[in-house]
Write a structure and sequence with these properties.
Elements lengths: L10 H6 L13 E3 L17 E5 L2 E7 L8 H12 L8 E5 L8 E7 L10 E5 L2 E9 L6 H14 L3 E11 L9 E8 L2 H13 L1 H8 L11 H18 L2 H8 L8 H14 L2 H13 L11 E3 L2 E5 L5 H6 L3 H8 L3 H5 L11 H15 L7 E4 L9 E5 L1
Antiparallel strand pairs: 1-2, 2-7, 3-5, 3-6, 4-5, 4-8, 7-9, 8-9, 10-11, 11-13, 12-13
Helix pairs in contact: 4-5, 4-7, 5-6, 8-9, 8-13
């Protein structure tokens, strides 16, 4: 990782720079999934990529943004002293994205056997998450290539990044950086599993099983086109067996988990002014400072209709696109739609993108959306994706 981090790092910056220069790592509270065997690495010299699951774990750490890695050294000493006698795993460094901080949202600490509450060293429970992981040996400054391998692997499988990156140090000697041993890990949204849970919640076990048919063969290592074919068939079965309200209820809950800190920041604006236009303005200003730029299709309220869309993943490529395929590959954050050769998924799949906004606007406006209309979708040939809520 570079010694200095850019200000205002968010998901879009992170994703469009192939995981930036961040490093992540595994530890004993991570377990390999049943399908952990990865395809052959690109080179015999490359360590294998595995799919692992981090079960929920008690974690004590110092969470404070960093601009340089040098800031971590005194924190490491502080958290090590505070956790003495309760350390249950290796030193762990967590990055979180899309939170309203300058620099990188950093937490350094340890999995622990009991709570630690010592000044800025605080304990909480890390949630269960899925990762692709690869071992890195040598200076942290050289870790970018490992990060890029994980990014490319995620694209090949059509899975999208979650907003947490982790470094766990199996060996760390500040006096000998070349001896560093860290497993780099990229969190991904294991959305097929979440999809099945939501199908069961809304429709019951029998109907969920019928729609899920063939899903047991889909693993983290399933390549994107095979995954896309199953998704296409499953969404068609969902649409045939359900109404629009049920489809929205299921698919909008199959989205990345939006950071509560991000929502709270914009909710405070709305609570202070009571004007939704102030939230739109703050969002636009934030996005304009990132490589994605502001909205192609700006959010607006027409009467009681809240019209929303999203920004392109890569604004430069999006603006230069001359074909729909080029537009799709530049616009979509969803790796499945972006990386598949020829996705023909029903546009209700975009309820998943609407689910990202649902997590944002429901707390801000203090209401629950039960329906949504997909007005534009890359999946039906449009130049962007957009949806309407009754506000």
């Amino acid at each position: 990782m570079r010694d200095h981090f850019p200000p205002g790092v968010d998901r879009r910056v992170f994703l469009t720079t192939s995981f930036g220069c961040a490093a992540w790592a595994a530890c004993p509270f991570l377990r390999a999934t049943a399908s952990a065997a990865a395809p052959a690495p690109a080179s015999p010299a490359d360590p294998p990529i595995r799919a692992v699951v981090r079960d929920a774990v008690l974690f004590a750490g110092i969470r404070r943004p960093i601009a340089t890695r040098a800031e971590l050294e005194p924190r490491i000493a502080r958290v090590t002293r505070a956790c003495a006698g309760r350390i249950a795993g290796p030193l762990t460094h967590i990055f979180r994205f899309d939170t309203p901080v300058e620099g990188y949202d950093s937490e350094i600490g340890y999995p622990v056997s009991a709570e630690v509450d010592d000044g800025e060293v605080r304990t909480h429970r890390l949630r269960r998450m899925h990762f692709f992981a690869a071992m890195h040996e040598g200076p942290v400054a050289t870790i970018r290539e490992t990060s890029r391998r994980l990014s490319a692997h995620m694209d090949r499988t059509g899975l999208s990044p979650e907003l947490e990156l982790v470094e766990v140090y199996h060996h760390r000697d500040p006096a000998d950086p070349a001896a560093t041993k860290v497993e780099v890990m990229a969190a991904f949204l294991a959305w097929p599993e979440v999809y099945r849970e939501q199908l069961t919640r809304v429709l019951g076990v029998e109907a969920a099983g019928a729609i899920w048919q063939g899903g047991d063969a889909i693993t983290p290592e399933t390549l994107v086109d095979e995954r896309c074919a199953w998704v296409t068939a499953s969404i068609a079965r969902l649409k045939a067996r359900t109404d629009a309200r049920q489809q929205f209820d299921v698919l909008s809950r199959v989205a990345l988990v939006r950071p509560p800190e991000d929502v709270a920041h914009f909710k405070a604006i709305y609570d202070r002014t009571g004007n939704i236009e102030d939230v739109f303005r703050a969002l636009t200003e934030k996005l304009a400072a990132t490589p994605t730029g502001a909205f192609v299709d700006p959010p607006r309220v027409d009467g009681r209709v809240l019209h929303l869309s999203k920004v392109p993943r890569d604004r430069t490529r999006y603006d230069a696109a001359r074909t729909h395929e080029e537009t799709r590959k530049a616009y979509c954050f969803c790796a499945l739609v972006r990386e598949a050769a020829d996705p023909k998924i029903d546009p209700i799949f975009c309820y998943r993108a609407a689910g990202w906004d649902r997590q944002f606007w429901e707390p801000i406006l203090g209401r629950t959306f039960t329906t949504c209309r997909i007005t534009h979708s890359i999946l039906k040939g449009d130049a962007f994706c957009a949806w309407d809520y009754d506000a």
